[in-house]
Amino acid sequence: MLNLSETDKLICILDPIDLKPIVEKIKPKSNGGPTGYNPEAILRAFLVQQIEKIPTRADLVSKIDRSPYLRYVCGFSTTGKVPVKQHLADITANYLRLMNWKY
Q1: Which of 7, 23, 27, 55 is least buried, going by the fewest C-beta atoms within 10 A?
Q2: Full-model pTM
Q3: pLDDT band per the 50, 70, 90 thresholds, residue 7
Q4: What are the tens digits of pLDDT across the range 16-65?
Q5: Over 60: is that where the pLDDT of 89 sits?
Q6: Sequence-ordered alpha helix ranges (H) in 1-103
């Protein structure tokens, strides 16, 4: 059996996933206002949360904040800020609304 390191596992799982169709549906329609975070990075962070069985959004934010590698894997700046827990909760609700899903 192939033994992948934790870092290799995330790359092998996330890299082949094309999130562009979802990003196109949820990205803001306007270029006005603050730019915020890359929608694809947010979606990848949510996938990392599921893959790594991270129980809460607060734990997810903490792990991404402490790990330049996780920031890189998700698509956030390796030296910049990451979204806060409330921002992720707001984004989740907004994404579900835009996708016409119930939360």
Answers
A1: 55
A2: 0.75
A3: low
A4: 899 888 877 776 665 544 456 788 888 899 899 999 999 988 899 899 98
A5: yes
A6: 6-14, 20-26, 39-51, 57-66, 68-74, 85-98
Residue 4 DSSP symbol? -
- Of 35, 47, 49, nearest to 77 by C-alpha is 35
Here the tokens at position 18 are 């094309």
d(CA 101, CA 41) in angstroms, rounded, equals 20
Q: Which residues of 72-98 are buried (b: 16+ CB within 10 A; e: fewer)?
A: ebbbbeeeeebbeeeebeebeeebeee
The single-letter code of the amino acid at 77 is S
Phi-psi region of 100 (alpha: psi -120 to 50; beta: other; left: phi over 0): left
Environment class of 60 (CB within 10 Å of its CB; exposed 0-12, middle 13-18, buried 19+): buried
Question: Which residue in 69, 95, 94 sits closest to 82, CA to CA?
Answer: 69
